[in-house]
């Protein structure tokens, strides 16, 4: 039996990311424009996901180099660490989105970013529907191939609801290795973070060229980091309770 070399996986991941960047060039620009609109309007970027897609939500929130104007939507029962099987049942439960949005929901100046590879379960889809009913734009981070292959569990899909769709190109089932019959090495977490960073880079380049003051966190473990973040915490801590 042959031994899998690190370069085999590394090369596969590198190719996936290169393909993702190329396939999403236009969509990344469109997503960045929506985020820039939020910053211009002094509004919020709402981010959401369920199961392991919550890793992408964590990547958007209170992250060194990330945006401070982020409101993470969350319910404890969606996290596998609080009950793995129950978390799957929870994201399939209709009505949870309305509960999560009861405290605060996106409006016309805000943007909702939803991460979901399968993009068919009621929770992420109903979040998108509710946001669009409130005239909020939706950035759907999903896999078109996975959505097409998954059984429909709600009235729509993330692809259908997205104002902009960022396609992770993840194959149905998420696993990537071995290439001819994937069983392990899931890629969605890596690709979701990469897509979000592509958007952030585009926001930075265009925002600074425009002269916008971008609300970006600094690492609290570098000189001046705590001081730089203090003003952002004072401003957004009043409207984003998870920052308190």
TrEMBL record:
* Molecular function (Gene Ontology), one example: isomerase activity
Superkingdom: Bacteria
The record's annotation in PROSITE patterns points to: SIS (PS51464)
Q: Which UniProt keywords apply?
A: Isomerase
Q: Name one GO biological process term.
A: carbohydrate derivative metabolic process
Q: What is this protein called?
A: Sugar isomerase domain-containing protein
Annotated InterPro entries: SIS_dom, SIS_dom_sf
Where is each SIS domain found? 35-209
């Amino acid at each position: 039996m042959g031994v899998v070399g690190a370069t085999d996986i590394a090369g596969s991941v590198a190719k996936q990311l290169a393909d993702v960047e190329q396939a999403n060039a236009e969509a990344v620009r469109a997503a960045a424009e929506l985020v820039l609109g939020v910053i211009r309007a002094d509004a919020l970027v709402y981010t959401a996901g369920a199961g392991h897609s919550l890793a992408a939500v964590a990547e958007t929130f209170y992250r060194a180099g990330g945006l401070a104007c982020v409101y993470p939507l969350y319910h404890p029962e969606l996290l596998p660490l609080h009950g793995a099987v129950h978390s799957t049942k929870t994201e399939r439960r209709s009505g949870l989105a309305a509960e999560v949005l009861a405290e605060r929901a996106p409006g016309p100046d805000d943007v909702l970013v939803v991460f979901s590879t399968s993009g068919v379960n009621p929770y992420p889809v109903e979040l998108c529907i509710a946001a669009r009913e409130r005239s909020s734009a939706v950035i759907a981070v999903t896999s078109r191939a996975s959505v097409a292959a998954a059984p429909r569990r709600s009235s729509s899909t993330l692809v259908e609801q997205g104002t902009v769709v960022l396609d992770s190109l993840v194959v149905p089932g998420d696993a990537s290795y071995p290439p001819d019959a994937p069983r392990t090495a899931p890629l969605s977490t890596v690709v979701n973070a990469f897509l979000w960073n592509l958007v952030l880079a585009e926001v930075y380049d265009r925002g600074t060229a425009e002269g916008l003051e971008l609300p970006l966190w600094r690492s609290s473990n570098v000189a001046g980091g705590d001081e730089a973040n203090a003003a952002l915490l004072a401003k957004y801590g009043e409207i984003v309770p998870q920052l308190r």
